[in-house]
Automatic annotation (TrEMBL), chains A, B:
The active site is at H37. Homodimer. Its EC number is 6.3.2.1. It is found in: Cytoplasm. The gene is panC. Belongs to the pantothenate synthetase family. The reaction proceeds by a bi uni uni bi ping pong mechanism. The keyword Nucleotide-binding applies. This is Pantothenate synthetase. GO terms for molecular function: ATP binding; pantoate-beta-alanine ligase activity. Pathway: Cofactor biosynthesis; (R)-pantothenate biosynthesis; (R)-pantothenate from (R)-pantoate and beta-alanine: step 1/1. (R)-pantoate binds at Q61, Q153. GO terms for cellular component: cytosol. ATP binds at residues 30-37, 147-150, 176, 184-187.
Length: 285, 285
């Protein structure tokens, strides 16, 4: 596996691969790899000739009071894990390499961003689409892989690709979970022992909500209330939001129908966890 | 020459060319082709295996009081001219094809746009970078060709490519002129006979200004005054602006030094004309 730190070297690597007629799969990450990331890499490995993984903690998508500085990093371990997952090229630029001079272009997400995590993270998705645009231009992937745990991120990137005609197929990969159902996340390391025991209830509450939604006689409000009530009773965390929206448009719903996402975020002492279920309810004909 | 009207067909065309290992040159235009455009096409023909020309009058870059509706169009003639210039694929989408649904991304130009033509055309360059981004993603060119008559546009696109790491080399092509020095422009057809006779003085005034700048003892203000005074006396048009700025950054100058642009816009009854000279004055060591 090649480890590349500069834009110049990455462009040369990509040019060589393209000339050889190789199809490129890109797995953009912020590092501190866990099984979720490796599942993305494995799928990319199966579907492409060349797999590029990027590790870049993107300052542009962190707010001033967020955890950019203390976001967990372990590049040495990441390199071993990426190599073992069959990654051909690990791109690990520093901030100066990705943002060498002030950009003359600002990208703003005007839909799908003002819901869910976007409410408390103004500008977050503007930072996401900017770095994804840069990574797409640098790695020129045929396919790019994103986890569906960050379902809003996937919806926004889906809209980015469609709106600006990127020649990239984006692939959403199912959330990888611990045995007890907790979604894998780099931020799980911040949970206390007690919090870790209760955290799987986040997914359980969402499953209950989806069950209610599929019964067919519940309103949007009833589905949300059912979920909120379970999360309050079992997670031991403060609820940030529980929302039921259309997917991937993330529009508000008048009734429980079509392709939807039930998503929640809860706040533990040092870790904010998110999870979701994307599901479909057919309406009456 | 293939004439393609849909995004789907263009993507298929590009995919085939890429698979064959062909280098692609793109010439983005708004049509009503003149010798300036054909010079771009000729250069693209010499430097690439495959030449794609786009013709698209982009509504996003016209202000509400600008000439989108009456911008001159003549697709039949354009097809003949493009074919004769060696274009392989003429992409002529309609507005619905380029903007099929509301975009979830807004692109804003935060530098190089608030000078020269940008002052009176707020949002103009936002529209330019958006359509150029879409065309770059659709045609996937190795090189893209732009005329230096629109020097500010070239500077903005240069900044777009650098800021977002587009894998495209942009090529600026010298302005093509009538025998009397008037820059070729689709908008020249709106000049009256009398205006047409006086219009070449736009370039003459700029030449005088550059001459003054190169003497080495003139201030920025003196260079501009010299130019303004000539244009006032000879063009018979209202002066919109005369500016001397660094190039391509388009920053204000404290003294006449380095790579610069002397640019002017003048308003005739039905036609607004722009022209410029890009030149370098070495400072003292």
């Amino acid at each position: 596996m090649r480890v590349i730190k500069t834009v110049k070297e990455l462009k040369e690597f990509v040019r060589t691969e393209k000339k050889a007629g190789h199809q490129i799969g890109l797995v953009p990450t912020m590092g501190f790899l866990h099984e979720g990331h490796l599942t993305l890499a494995n799928q990319a490995r199966q579907e492409n000739d060349t797999v590029i993984m990027s590790i870049f903690v993107n300052p542009l998508q962190f707010g001033p009071n967020e955890d950019f500085d203390r976001y967990p990093r372990n590049l040495e371990r990441d390199e071993q894990l990426a190599a073992s997952a069959g990654v051909d090229c690990l791109f690990t630029p520093d901030v100066e390499e990705m943002y060498p001079e002030p950009s003359i272009i600002t990208m703003t997400v005007t839909a799908r961003a003002d819901k869910l995590c976007g409410v408390k993270r103004p500008g977050h998705f503007d930072g996401v689409v900017t770095v994804v645009t840069k990574l797409f231009h640098l790695a020129e992937p045929d396919k790019a892989y994103f986890g569906l745990k960050d379902a809003q991120q996937f919806a926004v990137i889906d809209g980015l690709v469609t709106s600006l005609n990127f020649p990239v197929e984006i692939v959403g990969v199912e959330t990888v979970r611990e045995e007890d159902g907790l979604a894998k996340s780099s931020r799980n390391v911040y949970l206390t022992e007690e919090e870790r025991l209760k955290a799987p209830h986040l997914q359980k509450g969402l499953q209950l909500g989806v069950q209610a939604a599929k019964q067919g006689d519940k309103s949007v409000e009833e589905v949300i209330e059912r979920t909120v009530s379970y999360l309050q009773d079992h997670t031991g965390a403060a609820i940030d939001y529980v929302e039921l929206l259309s997917y991937p448009e993330l529009d508000s719903l008048e009734k429980v129908q079509g392709k939807m996402i039930l998503a929640a975020a809860v706040q533990y002492r040092k870790a904010r966890l998110i999870d979701n279920i994307i599901f479909t309810v057919r309406g009456e004909c």
